[in-house]
Amino acid sequence: MEQEGLIAIGKGIAYGLAAIGPGLGIGIVGGKAVEAMARQPEMAGKLQTTMILAIAFTEALALLGFVLTFLM
Amino acid sequence: MNPMELLPEKISELVHELSVLPYNDMHFEGVPGPLVLTNYVVWMIVAVIVMSIMFMSVANKEKQRMALAAKSGKVADLAPANKFVAMIEMGVEFIRDMAVDVIGQKDGAKYTALLGTVFFMLLISNLIGLIPGAKSIGGTMGGTVALALIVWVVFVGVGIKKNGGYGYLRSLVPAGVREMPLFGRILLGGFLFLLEFVSTFLVRPLTLSVRLFANMYAGHIILGVFSSFVMVFMPFFEKQLSFSVGGGLVGIVALAFLLIMYAFELFVAFIQAYVFTMLTAVYIQSSVHASEH
Fold this sequence. Notes:
The complex is a heterodimer of chains A (72) and B (293).
Chain A: H1 2-18, H2 20-39, H3 44-71
Chain B: H1 3-17, H2 39-72, H3 83-103, H4 112-128, H5 141-163, H6 165-170, H7 175-178, H8 182-233, H9 245-288
Helix pairs in contact in B: 1-8, 2-4, 3-4, 3-9, 4-9, 5-8, 5-9, 8-9
């Protein structure tokens, strides 16, 4: 009985910790992208593409934690 | 009808449905494990058929039109026949621009076929996976590892073809380190070589496949969980009791959230196909220009 509870707590802690880093990372990237777009509005298209690329990279780490909690 | 009791079994049912199962639970006698027709394989075949029809039906007409325009020399003959052909042309142009931008002017256009196949395969398969009951290629580790391995073979093969086997391995270490005195070269060069070797040969295909798998699987689970919420909480409206409206309201909130997540999953389908293709192009570029490190 208590094993199942401990496993559930472990899953929660795992995903919670896994979401800290990418959350900060995506915030930083988004902030810098907006700042750059404000400085040079004619580059907005290229900056948006690069921002989305960077967000997809960091989001993969958070999603890996999410998927692992469902797999175990 | 206690929702707290219904939910866990619905969620375990969902996780079971999302795993690799023989199609319609048919059992195949005497067929070895990897050749079984699973639910993912069936939807992969559907995606491949859709993609082939889309592109092959356009390719022949385009060739005839190009030949006709070259002969007659009139600009008006260059215009696409209808909007569908124009859309496919825009798609291929998008891939070719990405290939030439990232890989370089000289030999970027050669890789348009590979990048286009990877991009459109992933895009069409992810979009098909959004139909309820259908699966996408990225839904299991099998499909993503297959695509990542193909991409890996291509970029290692290109590196070896351009620089030779020993030259490719040598280019993993930057040029400045290669000219240091002997002791520094062994220490720093050895360390850097190990780092770059693991990063290029092991980490790259792994992260490619895991990124795609995690995004698609997590998306499907979120959609499935909120659908289970709707299924469990909406029947509260049928009871003629006054306090069952609360349960119904939870169902309506879950439905609204489900619609928003569905739109977000559409966005993620495009983004994941684009990121996979862009990363392939970047890896090919780092192999082609390896001698300049």
